[in-house]
Amino acid sequence: MTNKQKYALITGATSGIGYELAKLFAQDQYNLVLVARNQEELDQKASEFKQQHGIEVVTVAKDLFKREAPFEVYDAVKAQGLQVDVLVNDAGQGQYGEFTETDINRELDIIQLNIGAYVTLTKCFLKEMVGRGDGKILNVSSIGGELPGPLQAVYHGTKAFVTSFTEAIREETKDKGISITALLPGVTDTDFFNKADMTESKLVKEGSKADPAKVAQDGYDALMANKDKVVSGLKNKVQVAVSNIIPDDLVAANMHQQGKPSEENK
């Protein structure tokens, strides 16, 4: 089967890393199934990809904060008779602040989005991939999953789950013709921090941000090479490596300091 006959399904496909990943698949002549909440944004991106790359693009507008939404995405794909050859779980959000003060309902939504949607979509499509002995899955995690995350406790916890989950199912399916890869970016120049109310954090305000196109390329290349995971960016590789040597409480204290509100412009 050539790429022109294959479909890649990408969640969070209208912005950030998800959008950049969609561009890479489109350039390689994969047809796309784009999943996001906003139909208007989906239509804009679908039109762009069709015009620029001459591919088929299917859009599915669903709010993956809702538990039933990933199942509905799967049902929508099956109703159109499509086979998903590549699944990219990218959609994710965070919330900034002391855990005792943050909104529990928003955090439960984030757990559903960052974990529940990944698990559901992976379960649905991986079973089909194993059945035919072919398929690829890219789970966008974060270096946050490798580090304690004061002021982002729930987000970091969800990403620790994603990385561990990805490594486990990769091992289970390693002899079944499936490629499963985790992409671990660091701070990246996307809308994530606006949605997380985190723009005043030192990490965001004073630190450098990675180009989402570069992060996407790292993930795409790792998936195509069937690597287990890739930490995007040299600085992030160093940070993760050092955190594996230093005691966890010191790593947490350092992350807490980095995450505090910036003193710039105060």
Protein described:
InterPro entries: NAD(P)-bd_dom_sf (IPR036291), SDR_fam (IPR002347). This protein is α/β, with parallel strands linked by helices. It has one domain (3-259): 3-Layer(aba) Sandwich (Rossmann fold), CATH 3.40.50. The chain contains ten helices and seven strands. The protein has helices at 16-27, 39-53, 69-79, 104-132, 153-172, 192-195, 202-205, 212-224, 234-243, 248-259; strands at residues 7-11, 31-36, 57-61, 84-89, 135-140, 178-184, 229-231. Strands 3-2-1-4-5-6-7 form a seven-stranded parallel beta sheet, sandwiched between helices. It is globular and about 50 Å long.
TL;DR?
The protein is of the alpha/beta class.
List the helices and strands and how they pair.
Layout: E1 7-11, H1 16-27, E2 31-36, H2 39-53, E3 57-61, H3 69-79, E4 84-89, H4 104-132, E5 135-140, H5 153-172, E6 178-184, H6 192-195, H7 202-205, H8 212-224, E7 229-231, H9 234-243, H10 248-259
Parallel strand pairs: 1-2, 1-4, 2-3, 4-5, 5-6, 6-7
Helix pairs in contact: 1-8, 3-4, 4-5
Pfam families: adh_short (PF00106)
Family: Belongs to the short-chain dehydrogenases/reductases (SDR) family.
GO molecular function: oxidoreductase activity
Distance between the termini: 58 Å
The residue fraction in helices comes out at: 40-55%
Separate helix tally: 10
Q: Strand order of the main beta sheet, please?
A: 3-2-1-4-5-6-7
Instruction: Kindly provide the radius of gyration, computed on alpha-carbon positions and rounded to a whole number of angstroms.
Output: 18 Å
The count of strands amounts to 7
Shape descriptor reads globular
| CATH H-level superfamily | NAD(P)-binding Rossmann-like Domain
- Measured by DSSP, the beta-strand proportion falls in 5-15%
Largest sheet: 7 strands, parallel
Write down the CATH class. Alpha Beta
Going by helix content, strand content and strand pairing, the class is alpha/beta
Q: How many separate structural domains?
A: 1
CATH level 3 topology = Rossmann fold
Low-confidence segments: none
Helix-strand string: EHEHEHEHEHEHHHEHH
CATH architecture assignment = 3-Layer(aba) Sandwich
Mean of pLDDT? 91
Keywords: Oxidoreductase
GO molecular function: oxidoreductase activity
Organism: Hymenobacter wooponensis
Protein name: SDR family oxidoreductase
